């Protein structure tokens, strides 16, 4: 307890004081800030609020640290009750969203939209994304208080005063693409981008700041689904699972969603961004249909009807559920002649970028990162509208618009002739290849380069994106495990006692050695065994995505690692599966379904209480990369199977066997204590060894005596794990594989002995898409023979 006194003003460097404050809970931090002026300055430092902070206390305790904004009224919508407020310690303008945990359906428990939005916003700390700074859980009222930064005025309100000039529209689009690029690198798609959720504000210098908000429809898609020209890695779609086809507000909905595609990618956000781009320059919605089919025909009227022998090209569109050969054959129209894109087409570069964003085929549609490299944004002039030096930052207000005849586009008075000062408009100053776009017939930009920038990321760019995802996931693993596994360059032993997360309410209950799944005696091992068997059995009923059961086990083990007073069992396993299904699956199951599946051994109130407890301990963080996520990320990083030259046509079997071994790792207490990336790497190594394919002994061909000999130098470089580091995980997986093979493939009379432990494995991996991996003999059952 800290009392107000002169001695409280300790002579400490500010950095040390901020470091101490970072370990306090939110309520403690906001209370002790008023001890003295120096502490108040430290508590208002932006470093303390850069990450999302959590607390579990009553609403009254938290709200007393905030004051209402007198000039703005509270309002409510379908997402909750919003109160504009200011944080007292630093007078930061914020929006407090008060929402019930089960505001959609009481029989559902914690709303799946809240789980996804809070989990993903913790990953998205970027200057172009509205930050979620504080989450408070009021258990007594079954309510959440979410405090977002106040980012200004929605673009939708700005456009009521008329269209934006090209210079402002370009700056807004650039910042929106920066936000989307950051989201997509994390494997997160917004799925509801529109002017209402694009916030605009000017600072004291008059610079325009744009941020995207409202992540209630967000979805975590893990790694990119496509791998170069070879398309999907075999089995990747089943790991990610289907997505809902009823997302994105209708005027901004991509055509693949309108045609019933459930395996879409992050490219749906680029279509919505293109629609917003055109709307900013015209002041009206680009595609305004009255229904889904009307929306499709509105798109076809401008861009043409896609399909075989049609005007627009889209390979594979005829396979989508809602596509019909009876669609009217419409030809594409000139964008320069369309009333809603005529203004935009006065700049050829803007027209070219819009065409790339509104490409039918998602594989050919430009990505957010590639769009930022488009010549349209080269030497993009910053807005220099000056405000009074003494005036505070104010929401974006549209200035008086000049007439169409006097507006300037692309930094010059006309795109047809003059170029801006400092060189050619088409010259790239950053060393990238230049692009030439010229007006042909007044409606299209003719391409003079053989390879167009931004159409799709090159293989090297795709590999860089996957590598960033892998490194970010590994960095998070190192924080959670504090273990000496990982790249050889780390070389730092783990501390004896790992500290918990900063400023979190569960830091005091962190596991002593910081590792998840550490078995605390035989009681916990028995409870975990029962939980695993129930989860594997229930997954066949509730899970359509291969990663859902892995996510449920990650949640269960993370809860076990952070709570020492209780031993998690079946109740926590049921709650973990409920949360995993809400985060990953399309179909949301009611609590009664889980009660019935448990044989009514658990009451509905018990499951809901356990679910809330898991959310509190894990701080609503369920965007957890699992072993199967690491497996497919590693395969993409290896450019599978293009760079795997000795697979002998067995690359599909190797992937399916590695996924089977990842599922077997759920049964191993040893693997539960290891990082998921290490388990995934060991599963791939053992799969190659079982199939006797790959390189070993410095590239020579043949069969190795040890499974680790099939781990090549390229794989070690891609994953950061050496052969010696893989050995413990490989040995644990070998033991599980031998037992499973004996149960499932070597039963008496030629039939497998169906034990409860491996019954789920038989039902799942006995399907044809897994290519008979159950009959693949373990590596230990074969004697190594010299290469001939």
UniProtKB/TrEMBL annotation:
One biological process term from GO is: signal transduction
Where does the source fall among the domains of life?
Answer: Eukaryota
Q: Which UniProt keywords apply?
A: ATP-binding, Cyclin, Cytoplasm, Cytoskeleton, Kinase, Nucleotide-binding, Serine/threonine-protein kinase, Transferase
Location (main, coarse): cytoplasm
Please tell me whether the keyword ATP-binding is annotated for this protein: yes
User: Where in the cell is the protein located?
Assistant: Cytoplasm, Cytoskeleton, Microtubule organizing center, Centrosome, Centriole; Cytoplasm, Perinuclear region
* This enzyme's EC code(s): 2.7.11.22
Keyword Chaperone attributed: no
Q: Where is this region: Disordered?
A: 421-465
Domain F-box residue range list: 6-52
Recorded GO CC terms: centriole; cyclin-dependent protein kinase holoenzyme complex; nucleus; perinuclear region of cytoplasm
Q: What is this protein called?
A: Cyclin-F
> Which organism's genome codes for this protein?
Chrysotila carterae
Biological classification of the source: Eukaryota, Haptista, Haptophyta, Prymnesiophyceae, Isochrysidales
């Amino acid at each position: 307890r800290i009392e107000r006194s002169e001695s409280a003003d300790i002579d400490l460097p500010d950095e040390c004081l901020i470091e101490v404050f970072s370990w306090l809970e939110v309520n403690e931090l906001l209370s002790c800030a008023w001890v003295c002026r120096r502490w108040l300055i430290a508590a208002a430092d932006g470093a303390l609020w850069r990450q999302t902070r959590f607390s579990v206390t009553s609403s009254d305790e938290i709200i007393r640290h905030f004051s209402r904004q007198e000039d703005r009224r509270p309002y409510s919508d379908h997402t909750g009750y919003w109160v504009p407020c200011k944080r007292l310690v630093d007078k930061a303008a914020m929006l407090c969203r008060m929402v019930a945990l089960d505001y959609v359906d009481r029989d559902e428990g914690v709303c799946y939209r809240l789980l996804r939005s809070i989990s993903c916003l913790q990953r998205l700390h970027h200057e172009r994304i509205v930050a979620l700074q504080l989450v408070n859980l009021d258990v007594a009222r079954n309510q959440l208080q979410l405090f977002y930064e106040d980012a200004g005025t929605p673009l939708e309100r700005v456009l009521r005063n008329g269209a934006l000039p090209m210079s402002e529209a370009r700056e807004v689009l650039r910042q929106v693409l920066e936000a989307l690029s950051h989201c997509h690198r994390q494997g997160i798609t917004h799925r509801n981008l529109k002017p209402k959720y694009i916030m605009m504000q000017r600072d004291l210098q008059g610079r325009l700041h744009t941020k995207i908000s409202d992540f209630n429809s967000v979805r975590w898609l893990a790694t990119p689904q496509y791998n170069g020209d070879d398309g999907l890695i075999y089995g990747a779609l089943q790991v990610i699972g289907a997505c809902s086809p009823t997302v994105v507000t209708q005027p901004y909905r991509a055509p693949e969603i309108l045609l019933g595609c459930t395996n879409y990618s992050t490219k749906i956000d680029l279509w919505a961004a293109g629609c917003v781009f055109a709307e900013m320059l015209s002041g009206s919605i680009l595609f305004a249909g009255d229904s889904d089919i009307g929306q499709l025909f509105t798109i076809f009227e401008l861009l043409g009807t896609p399909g075989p022998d049609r005007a627009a090209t889209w390979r594979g569109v005829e396979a989508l559920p809602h596509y019909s050969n009876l669609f009217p054959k419409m030809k594409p129209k000139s964008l320069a002649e369309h009333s809603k894109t005529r203004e935009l087409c006065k700049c050829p570069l803007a027209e070219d970028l819009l065409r790339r964003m509104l490409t039918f085929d998602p594989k050919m549609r430009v990505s957010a990162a590639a769009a930022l490299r488009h010549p349209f944004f080269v030497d993009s002039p910053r807005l220099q509208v000056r405000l009074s030096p003494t005036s505070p930052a104010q929401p974006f207000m549209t200035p008086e618009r000049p007439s169409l005849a006097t507006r300037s586009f692309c930094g010059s008075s006309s795109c047809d002739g003059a170029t801006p000062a400092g060189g050619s408009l088409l010259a790239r100053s950053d060393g990238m290849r230049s692009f030439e776009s010229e007006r042909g017939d007044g409606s299209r930009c003719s391409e003079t380069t053989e390879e167009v920038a931004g159409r799709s990321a090159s293989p090297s760019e795709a590999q860089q994106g996957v590598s960033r995802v892998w490194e970010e996931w590994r960095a998070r693993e190192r924080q959670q495990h504090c273990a000496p596994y990982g790249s050889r360059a780390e070389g730092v032993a783990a501390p004896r006692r790992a500290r918990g997360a900063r400023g979190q309410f569960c830091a005091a209950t962190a596991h002593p050695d910081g590792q998840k799944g550490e078995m605390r005696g035989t009681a916990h091992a028995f409870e975990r065994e029962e939980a695993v068997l129930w989860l594997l059995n229930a997954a066949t009923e509730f899970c359509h995505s291969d990663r859902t059961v892995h996510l449920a086990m990650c949640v269960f083990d993370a809860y076990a690692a952070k709570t020492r007073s209780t031993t998690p069992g079946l109740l926590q396993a049921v709650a973990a599966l409920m949360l995993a299904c809400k985060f990953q699956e399309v179909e949301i199951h009611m609590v009664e379904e889980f009660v019935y599946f448990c044989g009514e051994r658990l009451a509905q109130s018990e499951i809901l209480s356990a679910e809330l407890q898991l959310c509190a301990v894990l701080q609503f963080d369920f965007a957890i990369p699992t072993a199967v996520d690491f497996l497919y990320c590693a395969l993409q990083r290896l450019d599978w199977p293009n760079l795997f030259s000795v697979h002998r046509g067995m690359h599909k079997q190797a992937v399916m066997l590695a996924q089977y071994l990842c599922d077997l790792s759920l049964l191993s207490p040893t693997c539960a204590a290891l990082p998921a990336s290490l388990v995934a790497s060991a599963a791939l190594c053992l799969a190659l060894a079982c199939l006797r394919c790959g390189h070993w002994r410095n590239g020579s061909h043949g069969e190795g005596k040890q499974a680790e000999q099939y781990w090549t130098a390229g794989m070690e470089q891609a994953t950061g794990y050496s052969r010696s580091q893989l050995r413990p995980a490989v040995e644990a997986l070998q033991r599980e594989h031998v037992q499973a093979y004996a149960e499932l493939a070597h039963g008496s009379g030629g039939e497998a002995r169906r034990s409860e432990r491996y019954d789920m494995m038989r039902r799942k991996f006995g399907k044809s898409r897994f290519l008979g991996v159950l009959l693949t003999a373990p590596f230990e059952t074969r004697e190594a023979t010299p290469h001939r």
